[in-house]
Amino acid sequence: MGKTASKPAILTAEAVTHYYGQRVGCRSLSLELNAGEVLGIVGESGSGKSTLLHCLSGHLQPTRGTIRYRRNGQAVDLYGLPVRERRRLLRTELGLVFQDPRDGLRMRVSAGGNIGERLLAEGLRHYGKIRSEAERWLETVEISTERIDDLPGTFSGGMRQRLQIARNLVTRPRVLFLDEPTSGLDVSVQARLLDLLRRLVADLGLSVIMVTHDLAVARLLAHRLLVMRRGELVETGLTDRVLEDPQHPYTQLLVSSRLLV
Ligand SMILES: Nc1ncnc2c1ncn2[C@@H]1O[C@H](COP(=O)(O)OP(=O)(O)OP(=O)(O)O)[C@@H](O)[C@H]1O
C-alpha cells in the first residue's frame, strides 16, 4: 500500500478490530497513511467506517489491534500512551471533524472560544494572541470575524462545519480525520466546503483520513480508497482505479450506486 522507503507512513493500523458487545464494528483492518496523503474510507451505512475512524483518531480504543502514529522519527502506539499524553496529542497533532458539528463543537462557547480552546490546551495564555489567531482562522474558513462572539447554535450547518475545521486546524495538526464532512449540507454548501478542504489540505500539507458514503466527495478529495463492507476491508487502491475499474463485486455495486441510494 504505497509506503515508500524514504517516507515511512505517518499512521499505521494493524489488524484493528472493535466490538460493541457482541456486534462487530470493524474487524481486522490494516492500513497505512502516508504523509500528505488523503485516504478515503467508503462503504454503505453500517459498514464500520465511523468505528474505524474513531479508533484511528484516538477516540475509541479498539478491542484488538494496534495503531501507531509516527512523531519525531518514532512510531508511538496511540493506545499504549498514558491517557493524558494521548489526549494532548488529540488536542494538538491530531484532529477529528465529527459528522455532527454538535459533537465536535462546544455549543455553549463562542466561535472564538471554540477555536481558542486548543491553543489554551497548548499553553498559550495571551488573550490578544488567542483572539487574533481565532480571527485569522475564521477568515481562513470564510466566516466573518464579526461572528467571533456568537454561539455556534446561531450558525448555519455549513458554517458550523467550517468552524469545526478551524477549531481543529488552529494547532496545525499533522493528521486530520474527517467523518462525513459534507453530509446533511445542501449541494452548493457542500461544494464550497469541499473547495475549502481541498485548499487547506494542499496549503497545510495535511495527511487526511476521510469517511464518506459519497463517492463524488471521495473522488474529489481522496488519493486512495479503502472500501468497507460489514466491518471488513474488501478492496483498496488508488481512487481512480477503484472507481473506474472496481475489482470486488461489492465495490462494483457501490460504484453503480445501487447500495448508496
Ligand atoms: N455505539 C454503538 N453501540 C453499538 N453498536 C454500534 C455503535 N456504533 C456503531 N455500532 C454498530 O457498528 C456497526 C458499524 O457502525 P458504524 O457507525 O461504524 O458504520 P458506518 O459505516 O460509519 O455507518 P454510517 O455511514 O451509517 O455512519 C453497525 O452495525 C452499528 O450498528
TrEMBL record:
One of its GO terms (biological process) is organic phosphonate catabolic process. Keywords: ATP-binding, Lyase, Nucleotide-binding. GO terms for molecular function: ATP binding; ATP hydrolysis activity; lyase activity. Residues 11-255 form the ABC transporter domain. Gene3D superfamilies: P-loop containing nucleotide triphosphate hydrolases (3.40.50.300). SUPFAM superfamilies: P-loop containing nucleoside triphosphate hydrolases. InterPro entries: AAA+_ATPase (IPR003593), ABC_transporter-like_ATP-bd (IPR003439), ABC_transporter-like_CS (IPR017871), P-loop_NTPase (IPR027417), PhnK (IPR012700). It comes from the Bacteria. NCBIfam families: CP_lyasePhnK. This is Phosphonate C-P lyase system protein PhnK. The gene is phnK.
